[in-house]
């Protein structure tokens, strides 16, 4: 910080003209009052002239002139201190590749490899104060989570929702992730930048292609290794562990040699997870910290210049005590005092440097609400409250889609459906259908899904949810018909038993035996149908499990149609949600729930059906990214882009 003096806004020197006019008017008015003193006795003068005493008037005039003078100085922008600031904005570009293969579920480091990798990426985004950062998710194929951006909050928002379960093609394909990162750098930073691969290993069959890519890559590829050399089993969705082709439990081990060689061949650095930030420090803001980085001090990112610091704010503080003297009974005097101050504050606000909006902290009191209302729209205020208090966010939103989402998260499904009904898009009708299903209105939900499909016939989630609701309605109707038949049979048996009440005991026993058979006959077909339905459901689940295993081993031969069927049946297959899945129950258990509930009498038939619908309709916060990845995956398959056998591994 260096010293000196300058005026940052000399163009406001014209304000001296009205200042001189004000001073001239005040002095002239004071002179007129002095002329009467030459002709009237001083004792009579206060009683004959209107206004304040001459001495008090002189003080007020001096205060007004001083106030205007201080305002003029503040407008000119006096500066006597300079501070060193970067001359140009940093052009450092970093693309982070997060491995989302199933091996990241391994728990050789707690709580899991995936969670530890997310923690480190979050710390890295906090550490990077300059430059642009992008994020790529890599599994059997690679997809862009977020392009290069200097807004780290965007990446921090998307990071928690990433998991292997959301990837359209399970498996491991590091070459696809590297190619996607290189394409992102070529599109967003003119080919300059560096790559950070957060990964737990590369298989031997994948290494030749990855090594060739690293040697030819113009970007440095650094590696942040996750896991241990001893490794750990990989949990699956059934509570067990993934097995290899020989039927043995697969153990995911850290392939340290391949990862170290990958970093060396491309001029990057190799790091393993540590408890502190020493492992991610080289990947922060300083590009020169990476050996072989294409961005260095010659790019000018480290050049700095001295920038003058505006000192006009201090003169504004000096104006405040004098401004208090101007608020008198005279409205004109108050206006004369307040006008320069208001002009000054407005001018300084226009001259202030831009700042980024920041979400209010939970500790912010009601005193800051008015300030937030001045600088934020209602939708922006609602977005800031969305995560921690969706009910309060719903009161802020004016956009019907945002308001409906907030009400849905708050659990007010009926109000959410009404909010979504104010929009006529396919997404709005789909969201309205979900809200109505959650509110226990299946018929209205089906109609909403139908409207969504009319707007967008390719909306697979709407078609799937509609089919689920229709299937549950059919099951409910069959159960109601079965119960009605059973009640009718019981009534007939009772009538026939009464008519034969005077018969002999042997005839009565025979009559009761004959009367019991029709009731059993009425029930047995339904029981057979239920048994067949359960067996059919089990068969479908078995086929689905086999299809999922085949897709993991031979995903490169999977067609778009096969994927759509598979993803519709296994969207939420993350091991971390096994406890929730166990509570919700398998589809077979859900199909039996109404019968058990009818026997116990604890739940009404309508409540049982509603419970089934709520369990089967997906409600996922990461649905946006899931749909995006699915759409890109299908596009690539339609274009004939299929990974090579050597580039793919099942986990």
From TrEMBL:
According to the record, the signal peptide region is none
Record's keyword terms, sorted: Membrane, TPR repeat, Transmembrane, Transmembrane helix
Domain VWFA stretches: 94-201
Q: Which residues cross the membrane?
A: 12-29, 62-80
Q: Where is the composition biased (Basic and acidic residues)?
A: 538-551
Pfam families (alphabetical): TPR_1, VWA_2
Q: Which InterPro entries match?
A: TPR-like_helical_dom_sf (IPR011990), TPR_rpt (IPR019734), UPF0353/GerABKA_families (IPR050768), VWF_A (IPR002035), vWFA_dom_sf (IPR036465)
Compositionally biased intervals (Polar residues)? 514-537
Supply the source organism for this entry.
Spongiibacter nanhainus
Its name, as the record gives it, is VWA domain-containing protein
Keyword Nucleus tagged: no
Provide ranges: composition bias, Low complexity.
Answer: 470-508, 552-561, 576-585
In the record for this protein, the TPR repeats are positioned at 426-459
Where are the annotated segments for Disordered? 469-624
């Amino acid at each position: 910080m260096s010293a000196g003096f300058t005026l940052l806004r000399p163009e406001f020197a014209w304000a001296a003209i009205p200042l001189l006019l004000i001073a001239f008017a005040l002095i002239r008015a004071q002179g007129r009052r002095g002329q009467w003193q030459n002709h009237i006795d001083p004792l009579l003068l206060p009683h004959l002239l209107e206004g304040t005493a001459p001495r008090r008037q002189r003080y007020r005039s001096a205060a007004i002139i001083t106030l205007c003078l201080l305002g003029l100085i503040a407008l000119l922008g006096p500066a006597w201190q300079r501070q060193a600031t970067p001359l140009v904005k940093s052009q450092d570009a970093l693309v982070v590749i997060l491995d989302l293969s199933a091996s990241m579920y391994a728990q050789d480091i707690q709580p899991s490899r995936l969670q530890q990798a997310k923690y480190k990426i979050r710390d890295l985004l906090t550490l990077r104060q300059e430059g642009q950062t992008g994020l790529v998710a890599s599994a059997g194929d690679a997809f862009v989570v977020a392009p290069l951006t200097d807004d780290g909050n965007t990446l921090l928002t998307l990071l928690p929702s990433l998991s292997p379960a959301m990837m359209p093609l399970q498996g491991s394909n590091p070459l696809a992730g590297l190619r996607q990162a290189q394409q992102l750098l070529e599109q967003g930073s003119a080919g300059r930048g560096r790559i950070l691969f957060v990964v737990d290993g590369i298989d031997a069959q994948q290494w030749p292609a990855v090594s060739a890519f690293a040697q030819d890559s113009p970007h440095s590829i650094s590696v942040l290794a996750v896991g241990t050399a001893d490794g750990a089993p990989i949990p699956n969705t059934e509570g067990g562990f993934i097995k290899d082709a020989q039927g043995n439990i697969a153990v995911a081990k850290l392939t340290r040699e391949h990862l170290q060689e990958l970093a060396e061949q491309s001029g990057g650095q190799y790091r393993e997870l540590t408890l502190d930030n020493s492992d991610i420090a080289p990947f922060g803001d300083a590009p020169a910290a990476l050996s072989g980085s294409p961005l260095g001090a010659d790019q000018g990112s480290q050049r700095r210049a001295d920038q003058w610091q505006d000192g006009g704010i201090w003169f504004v503080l000096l104006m405040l005590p004098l401004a208090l003297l101007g608020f008198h009974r005279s409205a004109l005097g108050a206006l004369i005092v307040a006008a320069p101050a208001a002009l000054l504050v407005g001018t300084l606000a226009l001259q202030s440097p831009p700042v980024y909006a920041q979400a209010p902290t939970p500790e912010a009191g009601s005193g800051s609400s008015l300030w937030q209302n001045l600088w934020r729209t209602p939708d922006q205020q609602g977005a800031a409250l969305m995560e921690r208090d969706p009910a309060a966010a719903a009161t802020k939103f004016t956009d019907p889609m945002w308001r409906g989402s907030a009400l849905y998260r708050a659990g007010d499904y009926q109000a959410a459906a009404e909010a979504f009904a104010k929009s006529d898009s396919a997404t709005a009708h789909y969201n309205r259908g979900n809200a109505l299903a959650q509110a226990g209105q299946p018929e209205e939900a089906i109609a909403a899904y139908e409207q969504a499909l009319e707007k967008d016939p390719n909306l697979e989630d709407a078609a799937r949810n509609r089919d689920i609701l229709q299937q549950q309605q059919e099951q409910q109707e069959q159960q109601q018909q079965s119960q009605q038949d059973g009640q009718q049979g019981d009534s007939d048996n009772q009538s026939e038993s009464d008519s034969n009440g005077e018969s002999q005991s042997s005839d009565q026993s025979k009559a009761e035996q004959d009367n019991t058979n029709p009731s059993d006959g009425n029930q047995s077909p339904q029981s057979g149908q239920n048994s067949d339905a359960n067996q059919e459901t089990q068969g479908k689940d078995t086929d689905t499990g086999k299809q999922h295993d085949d897709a993991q081993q031979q995903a490169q031969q999977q067609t778009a149609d096969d994927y759509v069927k598979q993803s519709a049946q296994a969207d939420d297959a993350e091991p971390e949600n096994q406890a929730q899945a166990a509570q919700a129950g398998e589809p077979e258990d859900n199909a039996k729930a109404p019968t058990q509930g009818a026997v116990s009498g604890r739940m009404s038939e309508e409540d049982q059906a509603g419970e089934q619908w709520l369990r089967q309709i997906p409600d996922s916060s990461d649905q946006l990214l899931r749909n995006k990845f699915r759409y890109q995956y299908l596009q690539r398959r339609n274009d004939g882009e299929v990974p090579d056998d050597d580039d793919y591994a099942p986990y």
